[in-house]
Amino acid sequence: MKKEIFYWGPFIDDSIATVNAMYNSAIAVNKFSKKYRISIINAVGEWESKKEDEKSIRFLDFKNNVVNKIPKYGFINSRLSYWIIFFKSFFPLKKLLTEKKPEFLVIHLLVSLPMTLFFLFRFKTKLILRISGKPKLNIFRIFIWKLISKKIDKVFCPTDETRLDLIKKNIFSSKKIYLLHDPIINIKKFISFKKDKELDPRFKKNNIILVGRLTKQKNFKLIIDAYKKNENFMKKYQIFIFGDGELEKNLKTKVKNYELENKIIFLGYKKNIYKYMANSKLFILTSLWEDPGFVLIEAAMNNLPILSSNCPHGPKEIIGNDEYGGYLFQSDNLASLSKKLNFFMQDSERNVLKKKKYIKRKIKKYTLFNHSLVLEEYLSNKI
Fold first, then answer.
1. Residues with Cβ within 8 Å of residue 160, at least 6 apart in sequence
2. Which of 43, 64, 131, 297 suits 20 as a labelling partner, its CA being 20 to 30 A distant?
3. Do residues 194 and 316 both lie within one domain?
4. Which domain holds residue 332?
5. Do residues 355 and 373 share a domain?
């Protein structure tokens, strides 16, 4: 009989990478592992839309289906949603852990609730923390995490940079901190999406593509400014931005003020982004931080050359540098981005092909099978 793993990570925006990491991890382990089975906790109805997509995943419902009533964007709204989920889920989560006694509880988002429960009560379940990106480690949070660090069995980080940064913080024992690459490459999904070839009629040729939530982190304003200043690039390429978010109105206003509405086009969130990647000339990532950058790997799967900011936690580990896999520019630096746009335009087809082949080799560790294999070894204490 397989041992039970429960995943905790309630959300109000399913476009964030951590949601896909959880979902793909559950698919991977349930398909490939002989020892473990993953179930996902559906705290406030956030997983309802995904239930029909993958039958191998069991969802544990708290019957608090209020996700559509929770405010979505902005700092105040995010804090409010945080506390709504916290109080709505406190006793249901305690009851679930007490009655079901899973072998592991892996926490991805809103980690304060399970941490609080494990601090206040005793459970037979082992607690695993997944940390990605740039957690806001203020004095209070560091104090709380140190206080509960003994209750945490393991900490998983999706990039080596994140793992090393966390070790330097000296919150958890370095022996508890592991590198576990996210399961991003889902071949089944990739093949099914590639069959759909219908594109937006505005999407023709010589397209540059950017994908992500329209938030401060993704820093899309930088590409708008760089594009406006580069006439040669503007003449040759058209930019398409996929995603939605709190800065959508501001970004569209910026494009309008530059009189670039016919050159920089917003197509919103698309479930199937692969078909657009397959018909693009270049993928650009302008983020201020990533971990590791799902869309970078998805772009590489679709054989796209990649131009990325050298931001913390991810891109350089995936694409190397200008000599090897991609075109890296200094994070949030307009001059550096403009320089690399010109470099891409002047680069030879042979060199572009060489870069794409390099990245293709690097992303093999992000398959579902590899993730399941390594995770099982960690949980079984074989590594």
1. 179, 317
2. 64
3. yes
4. 188-364
5. no
